[in-house]
Amino acid sequence: xxxxxIMIKSHPLGDGTMELDTLTSLINKAFKxxxxxxxxxxxxxxxxxxxTVYLAVNQNDLSVPLGGAITYKEDNYEYxxxxxxxxxxQGNGVARKIIHAVHxxxxxxxxxxxxEENPAKEQVIHSYEKLTHKLGGIVKNKGEYNxxxxxxxxxxxxxxxxxxxxxxxxxxxR
Length: 174
Description:
Mean pLDDT: 91
Number of strands: 9
CATH architecture: 3-Layer(aba) Sandwich
Structural class: alpha+beta
CATH superfamily: Gcn5-related N-acetyltransferase (GNAT)
Number of helices: 5
Low-confidence stretches: none
Largest sheet: 7 strands, mixed
Radius of gyration: 15 Å
Helix content: 25-40%
């Protein structure tokens, strides 16, 4: 599949477009390689934020999600609390296309990845760092996280990084 064949669709979470069980399954499949799965309380935690779901699909088969993101408004920026790609489609630019779509839609955005010694994850983190810099953003380390900030003013960075680094983990070990 070519990067140009990937289309991103977005909709409010809970609008009936996709069931939470289906999203949970997609997220768990993506994080299984890291020995992680979605915390069972995840949906209860974020539903009050009126999140948006971004889904990547192949233009030639709209019924099969390749990956996605869950985002919500946090102060004056969009927080991408979950980014996931089906393992069969990783390395094909799916996450990059999703991040671009969120950036175009929301402009100011932030997300985090946990710092850990995992060769597979190191490659992913490196690609996120490159993309963040390409979008004019910055990557900072805060505690156990890399925090990605795009179009966030320098005066707001520390407060946002503190807030993001203190959010509870939404993944648990399998």
